Amino acid sequence: MVAGVAGLVAGAMSMAAGEYVSVSSQSDTENADLARERMELTSQPELETEELTQIYVERGVSQGLARQVAEQLMAKDALGAHAREELGITDVTTARPIQAALTSAATFSVGALLPIIAATLASPSQLVAIVSVTSLIFLAALGALGAKAGGAAILRPTIRVAFWGAFAMALTAGVGALVGKAI
Questions:
Q1: Residues 35-56: pLDDT tens digits?
Q2: Cα separation, 160 vs 124, whole angstroms
Q3: What residue segments make up the domains of the chain, in order of their start?
């Protein structure tokens, strides 16, 4: 039980830290892109208008209308227009490191809690088998749930999550056997 809870806490913190670092790097890149775009808008507004115009032309808008759209959007919010159209940065897609870290920690914790509950219900002689089997079942179910939530086909992600979960458990058991510790 202690090992399970310690693993849950360590895993959740590791997932949160990794997610925070990764998404913070994305946020840093977005901020650098926005700073560069802000400078370009100040130093060469006509070139930036033309750049936005060409984005709309490439999407199928006529040259004249594309120019009008670019000018009107830039008059209202030039940086916002370029962030959205040129850089692909919007309020919805912008990197949020803290939100990503908390979400990652919470989802890991929920997933790790299920095998711990199974461990509390298993007899000592069946502990490894029960926790291993229920962990794989939970992984497969979470893989299916994630696929369904994302609108993807269910079978392939479910198999992928179960396979790699089984692989990770086998690798962990192998390392435990090599160093002579029970897992």
A1: 999 999 999 999 999 999 999 9
A2: 30
A3: 1-105, 122-183
